[in-house]
Amino acid sequence: MKLKIKAAEERKSVAAVIREAAAKIVESEANEQARKRQQDVKKFMKEIKELAKRNAKYTKGFDSTKALREIRYSE
Questions:
Q1: What's the predicted TM-score (pTM) here?
Q2: Which of 12, 21, 48, 49 could covalently link to 16 via disulfide, CB atoms 3.0 to 4.6 Å apart?
Q3: Is 41 a member of any domain?
Q4: Structural domain that includes position 44
Q5: Is residue 70 part of a domain?
């Protein structure tokens, strides 16, 4: 009954009111998933930076570009 009243107030069909509500729910869920993904990426990048800091003491003076070139052209 509430749907019929809302549809009448908005001068729309009940189906149109339901479609709009469903679209809002889907959009809200998509935004929430995007926010969670963004948080996961930030957390992952923070962990990578911490690992890089810890490993930095073991790689002083190491030229990674040079090492990669040697690996690439060694064959």
A1: 0.53
A2: 12
A3: yes
A4: 2-60
A5: no
